[in-house]
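Suppose you are handed only these lines of text.
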Amino acid sequence: MDCVFCKIATGEIPGKILYQDDKVVAFPDIHPAAPTHILIIPRQHIPSLARLSDNDTALVGHMVKIANKLAKEGGIAESGYRVVINCGKEGGQVVPHLHLHLLGGRKLTDGMG
Ligand code: 5GP
Ligand code: ZN
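From them, the structure of the protein bound to guanosine-5'-monophosphate can be written out as follows.
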């Protein structure tokens, strides 16, 4: 699978892993848009949120749970943070492997588009 996030998940592309378990991997975004900018991805190659099967909805819940955990550990749980999943071209998705952005550490003023 020629997918950069699959390669990060398997370790084929080395990088800093902030959290991992049998279902998900979390690592810093290469171009951080905020002081805290972490990507949380499923190990499974799911191309986008739109391609999520009924069996995988719990996986997204798990991704959110890990975002909350990392926000707490990163000291932004009280100041606040944002979780974002871009889906498809007009949704701003660039990497075609499902990922959740955890953003925080500054006042996020960007609107909803
Ligand atoms: P999207 O726009 O698809 O929701 O977000 C993709 C994100 O992945 C971007 O914020 C981009 O900076 C990040 N990204 C793209 N390639 C890499 C990479 O090779 N390593 C890491 N750590 N982040 C990446
Ligand atoms: Zn992938």
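What can we learn from it? The beta strands are 19-20, 24-28, 36-42, 81-84, 100-104. The mean pLDDT is 96.
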